[in-house]
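Hi V.,

Quick status before I head out on leave. The structure for the redesign project is tokenized and pasted below; the design run finished overnight.
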């Protein structure tokens, strides 16, 4: 898994002896297809075949990194069983089908949905794409964010106080990925800046940026928790 999606990266990985490659941010459809391909005995037979699968599919359509478009199986789609909502385990936690996000973006954004400059707190289309339109998975992703983002921000603050650039970069990178997964674009922006601060050993810049990070996270958390309370009360 890599954040490097530059041309030729797949070929370099295959030449080094890897079997496959996933690029971030993760497309769950591609992830499911890749896992199913490698666990159901449908692996490419050689490095040459692997490299070929990264190219054009033959019909002019390509998917991520040039791969053929993903064909979802029922398990990848998260089909319900007997009408029951699937239960999805995420990082050792279990979330039921209660989704703390609406089925679709509200026609009229509720109070707190946007910032003072009119920018949306959540990119709903991004969240819909990440969860493949599966309500239970959407709820699990948002639930994981709400549970984990606070402790992760605390660890980032500790890294800044310890003046440890490598830890700053590591924690900020993780937070950026968490925010991108649920479409919290303003959080992505500030944690991307903090990640650069760590990489460039700019502890002073990180010290100045962390409070904005806390503020943006608080906005998103309050917004999503308000939606969840409204749905539970309905």
């Amino acid at each position: 898994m890599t954040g490097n999606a530059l041309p030729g990266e797949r070929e370099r990985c295959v030449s080094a002896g890897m079997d496959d490659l996933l690029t971030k941010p993760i497309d769950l459809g591609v992830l499911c297809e890749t896992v199913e391909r490698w666990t159901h005995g449908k692996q490419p037979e050689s490095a040459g075949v692997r490299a070929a699968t990264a190219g054009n599919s033959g019909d002019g359509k390509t998917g991520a990194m040039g791969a053929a478009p993903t064909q979802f199986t029922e398990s990848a789609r998260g089909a319900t069983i007997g009408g029951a909502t699937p239960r999805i385990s995420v990082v050792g936690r279990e979330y039921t089908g209660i989704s703390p996000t609406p089925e679709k973006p509200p026609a009229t954004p509720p109070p707190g949905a946007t910032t003072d400059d009119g920018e949306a707190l959540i990119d709903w289309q991004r969240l819909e794409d990440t969860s493949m339109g599966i309500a239970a998975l959407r709820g699990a992703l948002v639930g994981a964010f709400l549970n984990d983002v606070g402790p992760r921000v605390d660890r980032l603050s500790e890294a800044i106080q310890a003046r440890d650039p490598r830890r700053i970069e590591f924690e900020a990178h993780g937070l950026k990925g968490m925010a991108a997964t649920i479409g919290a674009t303003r959080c992505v922006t500030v944690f991307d800046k903090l990640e650069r601060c760590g990489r460039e050993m700019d502890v002073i810049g990180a010290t100045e940026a962390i409070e904005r990070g806390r503020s943006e996270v608080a906005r998103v958390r309050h917004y999503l928790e308000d939606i969840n309370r409204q749905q539970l009360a309905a």
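Above is the designed sequence. The first strand starts at residue 88 and ends at 90.

G. will cover questions while I'm gone.

Best,
W.
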